[in-house]
Write a structure and sequence with these properties.
Order of helices and strands: EEEEHHHEEHHHEH
Strand order of the largest sheet: 1-2-3-4
Shape: elongated
Oligomer: single chain
InterPro entries: TTHA1013/TTHA0281-like
Largest sheet: 4 strands, antiparallel
Structural class: alpha+beta
Number of strands: 7
Number of helices: 7
Distance between the termini: 58 Å
Strand content: 15-25%
């Protein structure tokens, strides 16, 4: 194992800081390098070569800063890009449309369930949703494709306990089992059923919808589902 000290800049506060990075060479599945950062619990970077490792490490540290910043500490479970990467790996036929809709629905149901509990972050990821002609859409997908961004590790907010992480994993796994094989068109129609889309969509426009409005609707959906 090789230990290095890295000088870097916090992605949120823009303050200079020094971190301790432990680098290992792994041989369990071919040769590759991995790195962990002492000051950033849960962060793991990998690469087949040291330059690839350093590139992955830089992206992972930036995502960790954003997810675990003081500003966001009690708001979000994951960084958005890492969560979208995870969906692209687990969904059947992971088109950008499908990833966008599944991300929205999973995030919305999380907000209406675990997001209401005192010790859990309010939201799964930080996203700017809009009411578009394709239903509820993360504005990220209006100008990007998932393959445009580097793959990043899915790292939990550092404030979460092991039990909380376990509960959130089960929640996501159960959600994906129910929806991973649903086709794109059906997912578009499903998101158009939501009041946040019906009340905000204007033909030809992409109308911003707040996370708080989505959370409010899904709290009602979860509370009233037994009455339907």
């Amino acid at each position: 194992m090789l230990t290095r000290r890295y000088n870097t800049t916090d992605a949120v506060t823009h303050e200079r800081k020094t971190v301790t990075v432990d680098i290992s060479r792994n041989t369990d599945d071919g040769y590759y390098y991995s790195a962990v950062v002492k000051e950033m619990p849960g962060l793991i970077a990998t690469g087949e070569t040291l330059p690839e490792l350093e590139l992955d490490l830089a992206g992972a540290m930036e995502e960790w800063d954003i997810t675990n910043s003081r500003r966001d500490n009690n708001l979000f479970v994951f960084s958005k890009q890492a969560f979208l990467n995870m969906l692209s790996e687990k969904l059947d036929n992971p088109t950008s449309m499908k990833i966008s809709k599944m991300s929205y629905l999973c995030s919305a149901y999380y907000a209406g369930t675990y997001g209401t509990l005192e010790d859990y972050p309010d939201f799964l990821i930080s996203s700017d949703y809009v009411a578009s002609k394709y239903g509820m859409t993360d504005s990220y997908f209006l100008g990007h494709k998932i393959e445009d961004k580097p793959k990043l590790k899915l790292i939990f907010n550092a404030t979460l306990s092991d039990n909380q992480k376990h509960n959130i994993r089960l929640f996501i796994d159960n959600f994906l089992k129910q929806g991973k094989s649903v086709d794109d068109f059906s997912l578009v129609l499903r998101t158009k059923e939501d009041s946040v889309w019906k009340d905000n969509y204007v033909e030809g426009n992409n109308t911003p919808v707040s996370l708080e409005d989505i959370k409010s609707e899904y709290i009602n959906k979860v509370n009233n589902r037994g009455e339907k």
